[in-house]
């Protein structure tokens, strides 16, 4: 059992490190998409200004369409860089906090083990004292022997109680770790699928915008 818990604690440490690295990567990705959205917006404004100064009506119309396209791309990239990535970040951050909670449970198990071992040590100490008295009759009075036997009985109860508490905490923690693993896999799988579906939708919208712009150029070529 101790090997199982030690191994799982190491695995949780590795998972936490990976999650923190993922969170940093997501934050970087979000900043990059926001910067890309800003670039689209600035580019769109530049195209629209050029369109306003262009004397050729056909070219002015193409520049206006391109400026409008860039403004729409700004909105799409901004959306991808905020709400979509944010949901991924939320799930990641939530599980980092959950690992912190599991750590507290491991610590509670450690304290329960320490208490059990302390009670057991005290019990063994008193038994050894009684054994010494038994091997050397006359060293202790009958009253002292009765007192010591009473202390041993109470120490046995404390030891048994603390041992049961340790076993209960260990069993509960094991169930919680298994449940944590199952929920983590399920939640991240759902988050990834949602993120990818949203990413695909955004890319399809971008393709539609570019195709519409290209079709307009072919329909109304600049003269």
Task: Spell out the key features of this protein.
single chain, 223 residues, 0% strand, 3 helices, mainly alpha
Helix content: over 70%
Separation of termini? Answer: 81 Å
Question: Over all CA atoms, what is the radius of gyration?
Answer: 35 Å
Largest sheet: none
| Strand percentage | under 5%
- The averaged pLDDT comes out at 89
| Low-confidence spans | none
- Overall 3D form: rod-shaped
Please tally the helical runs, counting DSSP H or I stretches of 4 or more residues: 3
Number of strands: 0
Order of helices and strands: HHH
Structural class: mainly alpha
Characterization of this structure:
- 94% of the residues lie in helices and 0% in strands.
- The protein has three helices and no strands.
- The protein is rod-shaped.
- The N and C termini lie far apart (81 Å).
């Amino acid at each position: 059992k101790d090997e199982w818990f030690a191994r799982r604690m190491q695995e949780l440490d590795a998972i936490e490190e990976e999650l923190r690295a993922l969170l940093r990567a997501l934050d970087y990705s979000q900043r990059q998409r926001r910067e890309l959205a800003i670039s689209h917006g600035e580019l769109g404004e530049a195209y629209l200004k050029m369109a306003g100064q262009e004397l050729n009506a056909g070219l002015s119309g193409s520049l206006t369409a391109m400026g409008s396209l860039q403004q729409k791309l700004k909105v799409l990239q901004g959306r991808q860089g905020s709400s979509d990535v944010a949901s991924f970040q939320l799930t990641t951050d939530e599980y980092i906090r959950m690992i912190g909670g599991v750590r507290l449970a491991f610590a509670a198990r450690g304290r329960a083990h320490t208490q059990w071992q302390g009670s057991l040590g005290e019990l063994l100490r008193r038994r050894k004292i009684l054994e010494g008295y038994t091997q050397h009759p006359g060293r202790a009075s009958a009253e002292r022997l009765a007192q010591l036997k009473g202390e041993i009985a109470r120490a046995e109860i404390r030891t048994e109680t603390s041992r049961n508490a340790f076993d209960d905490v260990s069993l509960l923690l094991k169930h919680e770790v298994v449940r944590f693993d199952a929920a983590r896999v399920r939640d991240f799988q759902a988050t990834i699928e949602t993120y990818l579906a949203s990413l695909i939708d955004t890319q399809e919208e971008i393709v539609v915008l570019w195709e519409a712009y290209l079709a307009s150029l072919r329909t109304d070529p600049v003269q």
